Amino acid sequence: MTKQRSTSGENEHDVSGWSYARAGAAALWLICAGCSGGAEQTSGFTASVGPATSATQGFTTSSTSEGATTEGSTSTTDDGTTRPPETDSDPSAPTSDDATTVAGPVCGDNAVEGDEVCDDGVNDGLYGGCNPDCLSFAPSCGDGEVNGPEVCDDGVNDGAYGGCAADCSALGPSCGDGEVNGAEVCDLGVNDGSYDGCNPDCTPGPFCGDGEVNGPEGCDDGNEVDNDECTNQCATASCGDGILQPGEDCEMGNIGGSSCAGLGFEGGALACNNNTCKFDVVACYKCGDGIVNGPEACDGGNLNGQSCQSQGFVSGNLSCAPNCAAFNTSGCTKCGNNIVDAGEVCDGGALNGQTCLSQGYVTGQLACNPNCGGYNINGCTHGNCCQVGGAGACSSTPIRNCVCANDPFCCNNSWDSLCVQGAINCGAKC
C-alpha cells in the first residue's frame, strides 16, 4: 500500500482505497455529464465537459473549453484513465458549501500587517505619520534629519551633551547655550574670545590672572598676591592705588595696623601721607626728641616760641618741664612792674617800706636792685659820721660805737678828723 505525506507534514493517509472511491465517483460524474450534455454540480463540485480536466479542492471550478474537474475528486484524462486525487490536499479546507472570502493585508487599514512598516490609516506622508506605501515612516523625530517643527534631530536624541532633546524640540546641552555644562569651563552664550569672556570652544578667553598681558591690563603675573609689584587687578603697583605694597609705609589712609607707640613714640595719632605713602608722625609725640607735637607744650629747649613775657612775666628765663606737658617759670620774674610780688624783696620804686636809714645809713636814697632781689644802697651815706663835730656826733649807732670803742676821745671830747677816719674804717660810707 502506498502512503503519501500531506503538505503540512502532519498526517498520513492511505490513498489507495480513497483513490478507488474517487474513481467511482468520477465515473458516475461522467455518466451524468454525458446524460445531461452540460455541466452538473456533484458532491459540491461543478465541472464542465471538455477534452481536458482539472480539479480544485474546496473551490468552485470554472468550465473551460478543455474541460476540468476540481481537486478532491478523481479526474479522467484524454486517454480515458482515472487519475487519483492530489496527495497535498488539506482535508480541513472549506468546500464550496462553507467557503468564505479572507482579505489579505491592505495598506491604509490602520493595522501594520505583512511587510508593512507603518500604517496609520491616513498614510499621507506628513510629519509624524506614514508614507502612502506603508513601507516606511514619514519624516519624524528620530530619523536623523531636521524636519517639521524639529529644532534638532541626530537620530539618537538622548539629551546628552552636544546632542538633541528627546522630543527634537531643542538642542541638548552644548557650548554656546549660556550655561556651563559637560566639560565646559566657560559659556556666556556669545563665546567670541573677547577679554574676560569665553572662547568659541567654551574655554576661558583672555582674563586678568592668565599670566599674559592683554586687554586693559598693565601687568599680569598670573598669581593672586595683591601686594606685590602687580595687583590682582593687573595694574602696576603704585602709591595711591589703595593697595599696601612693599616699600610703602601706608596707602590711602591704610596704616597697616601701625601706631605711634609702635614707632617709638609715647603716643599720639599716626597718619598717612597719601602723596608719599609714608607715615605722618606729626600727631605722634615723644618728650625729649626736641619736637613739640601731640599734647606737648614744649620739648627740651624747644619752647614752641614761648617766653617768660608770653607767660605773663616781666622778664626771666623760661624753661620746659621734664614731662614736656608744661613750662617751668621758676626762672621768670615780674620784677619791674613796681609791685613787690612773691619772691621779690622790692620792685622798682616799691621798696617795701625800706629806707637808707632802715638799712643802717644816716641819709641818702635807697633803691631796688634790677632783679628785685635786694636793695641798692649806693645812694645811701652815713652823713654826719663823715664830718667833724661834737663828741659822738655820728648818727649811725653801729659806726659810732665802732669808732668810740677804738678811740674814746671821739665820744668823750669831740668828733674830729681822726674820728671821721675811724668811721670810714668802721664801714662808714662817706
Give an overview of the whole structure.
The chain contains four helices and 20 strands. By secondary structure, it is largely without helices or strands. Among the domains are: 3-83, no CATH class; 382-425, no CATH class. The protein has a two-stranded antiparallel ribbon. The protein has a two-stranded antiparallel sheet with strand order 3-4. α2 crosses α4. The chain is rod-shaped, with a radius of gyration of 75 Å. Mean pLDDT is 79; it is low at 1-99.
Furnish the topology, listing elements before pairings:
Layout: E1 3-5, E2 12-14, H1 15-36, E3 40-42, E4 45-47, E5 75-76, E6 82-83, E7 267-268, E8 271-273, E9 278-280, E10 284-285, E11 315-316, E12 319-320, E13 327-328, E14 332-333, E15 363-364, E16 367-368, E17 375-376, E18 380-381, E19 389-390, H2 397-406, H3 409-412, E20 414-415, H4 417-425
Antiparallel strand pairs: 1-2, 3-4, 5-6, 7-10, 8-9, 11-14, 12-13, 15-18, 16-17, 19-20
Low-confidence stretches: 1-99
DSSP E strands, number: 20
Side by side, the strands of the main sheet go 1-2
| SS content category | little secondary structure
Distance between the termini: 206 Å
User: In which range does the helix fraction lie?
Assistant: 10-25%
Quaternary state reads single chain
Mean pLDDT: 79
Instruction: Report the order of strands and helices.
Output: EEHEEEEEEEEEEEEEEEEEHHEH
The largest β sheet comes out as: 2 strands, antiparallel
| Rg over alpha carbons | 75 Å
Q: Which word captures the global form? A: rod-shaped
User: Strand fraction band?
Assistant: 5-15%
Number of helices: 4
